[in-house]
Specification:
Radius of gyration: 17 Å
Shape: elongated
Largest sheet: 3 strands, mixed
Order of helices and strands: EHEEEHHEEEEHH
Number of strands: 8
Strand order of the largest sheet: 1-7-6
Strand content: 25-35%
Amino acid sequence: QRFGSENANGRIYPEAVLKSEVEKYQEAITDGRGYSELNHPESSAIDLGRIALNVVELHWEGSNLMGKAEIPISDGFRNYGFVSTLADMAAQWIISGLKIGVSSRGLGSVTQQLGRLIVGDDFELVCFDVVAQPSTHNAWISLDKGEIDMYRENTEKKGNLIKESKFSEFDEWLDKK
């Protein structure tokens, strides 16, 4: 997520509004409830049967909100590669090299100011969902810390990054579980 700049949905999140809601969301993370669903559903209620990620950390880097998440994969996926949950599906896409993103889901009003949609003070952050087209520019999921650095503020892209193995960090993560 990012404050102060227009996203692909034409919305601008003011700094105070977004930072306040992220601070409230930190409680959900602390409680182990940083749930993310696959795609944005119509409802604002989180459906436990659709969980694809669990956000475990959020922090600010300039106007960019960066985060870390766990993928609550099933034992069937971990041990045999069976895809039986939406989290398993998200994990499979990531280790297969597909580019998937994250987008915030929230409720609130917008006002038009000088032809731009400004998110109102009544905004309530519900969660961050796994999506094909994130509304925030470059809000992609990655296992490669070097790749993430390309999207941090005040960093420059330095050629194409070559990964030792696209599975290496995911394999390390699986070994810890």
